[in-house]
Amino acid sequence: MYQFRSRQADGPIGNAFVILGLIYHSIVKDVRKSHKSPLMSLLMEMLQAVVFTMAFLLMFQFLGMRGAKLRGDFVLYIMSGIFLFMTHTKALNAVFSAEGPTSPMMQHSQMNTVIAITSAALSSLYTQTLSMLALLFCYYVFFTPFEIYEPVSAFAMFLLAWLSGCAIGMVLYSIKPWAPAIVGIISMVIQRANMIASGKMFVANMLPPSMLLMFDLNPLFHWIDQARGFTFINYNPHNSDLYYPLWVTVALLMIGLVGEYYTRKRASSSWAI
């Protein structure tokens, strides 16, 4: 009689390929959550970025705030904040919403929370990166050519904004099984507060010291301001730091990993999260 058996990988290299395969298929599953077609999922992400950009352009136009822009392309100034804000927020929400230790998905062989978290974070990065590149390409080709002063460094700030979102999401993810309702509210408050606290709507160098104290603790505020310094040749960020948010991100990531390990070892199936 034929018996079903789980396929065992041979050696560490085989195990690595099995894990990578699981992460790949989990990423595909996460990308197709919003729509069955990956292309439509990407178009939806692009549409959100376009709506955000148009909304801020209209707001600045009606409020007469265009004079507060940097010396450079105004649309690029808006998008430099929108892209980092969206990748940070999407990464936070993706990691926070990943399959938990008591999820039915964890009953599958070789599936675990590390794979679930990694695939959720990478799927968010994948869609946001493609969306950003596609929008920048369309703006460059169909509207006006532009030049990014240091594109590699600017993209590094984009990745760090994503990483900080993952770190905050990890901390919330590790606490979620213990108090899902409260942590859900905290996650929503953080995402809504970043609409203003991220600093994407203004230039950090123009903030007075009294207002700077309101934003200085937010890592995303520093990433956005530093990204604009690498995007525009005429802008040198003075009121933001590159190392403070990096150390905060590393600290939050370590706390999240320790908390996730502690929760995973004590999670009960009766929690059903």
3D structure, described in words:
- The protein is an all-alpha fold.
- The protein has one domain (38-268).
- Helix content is 68%, strand content 0%.
- It has 9 helices and no strands.
- It has helices at 11-31, 38-63, 74-96, 113-142, 151-175, 180-197, 209-215, 219-231, 243-266.
- It is globular, with a radius of gyration of 21 Å.
- The protein starts with 10 loop residues before the first helix and ends in a 7-residue tail after the last helix.
- The model is unreliable at 1-5 (pLDDT under 50).
Order of H and E elements: HHHHHHHHH
User: Could you describe the largest sheet, including whether it forms a barrel?
Assistant: none
- The count of strands amounts to 0
Radius of gyration: 21 Å
Number of discrete domains:
1
Strand percent estimate: under 5%
Average pLDDT figure? 79
Structural class: mainly alpha
Uncertain residue segments: 1-5
Overall, the morphology is: globular
Distance between the termini: 37 Å
Helix content: 55-70%
Helices, by number, come to 9
